[in-house]
Amino acid sequence: MVSLRTLATAVLAVPLVSALTASQIVQNIRTLTTKSQALQAPAQSISIINGPLIIIGQGPFPILIAGFTDIVSTATVAIAAMTEDRDTIADVPGAKAIADAFREFVRVHQALLNILIGKAGLLNPLPIVGQPIATILRQIESVVDTIAYGLIDIISPADERRMITSDSNSLHGTIEVSIKAYEGVDVGNLDLGNVGVGKKAKRAFVA
Questions:
Q1: Which end of the chain is less enclosed by CB atoms within 10 A, N or C?
Q2: Are 198 and 173 in contact, with CB atoms under 8 Å apart?
Q3: Distance (Å, rounded) from C-alpha 75 to C-alpha 82?
Q4: What is the largest CA-CA distance in the chain?
């Protein structure tokens, strides 16, 4: 039996570089995008048969939890780098490259989350499965929000700040839907048009 701790250790990310040139920030974001992309296949494999295997450390959910833990760890290193070095990215090409990389991360991560949302209905009778996923998604929500704050803070061109603001609000909304799905809330009753621009998102991402 493979434990969650063993899986998390096996996929733990190599620390990201801490220098804050635009190209390095872009690479850091792309690292997160690659990690999100890699979780789509395990998410797609979730079934009513293999989902409950989480209780013995098997099936796709331990892989997903370990992968999300890896994303949180990797993102935390990137956040620390942004906190330590506050140099502003003022040139438009550099800021645009960062905003474009973040948009691609949002697209890929939303695709992953949408797979999870679609699979949640299979597991409604099994709260023991849903709660660990909801918990790690809360951690993802926190770290992604913090990355967005940091990016908005270190780039100065207004258009790119607005782009990151819009994309982060959209991702925030998708994460909220996925959390509710695994907490046992009926996704069909949620207002998907408004969930991405709730009070928290509006307050957090004003450029």
A1: N
A2: yes
A3: 11
A4: 52
Q: How many CA atoms lie within 13 A of 27 on its CB side?
A: 10
Task: Determine if the pTM surpasses 0.85.
Answer: no
pLDDT digits (tens, 9 = 90+) for 71-105: 999 999 988 887 775 678 989 999 999 999 999 99
Sequence spans of domains, the chain: 4-9+19-204
**What whole-number distance in Å separates Cα of residue 16 and Cα of residue 181?**
32
User: In the structure encoding, which two tokens stand for residue 116, read together?
Assistant: 């999870």
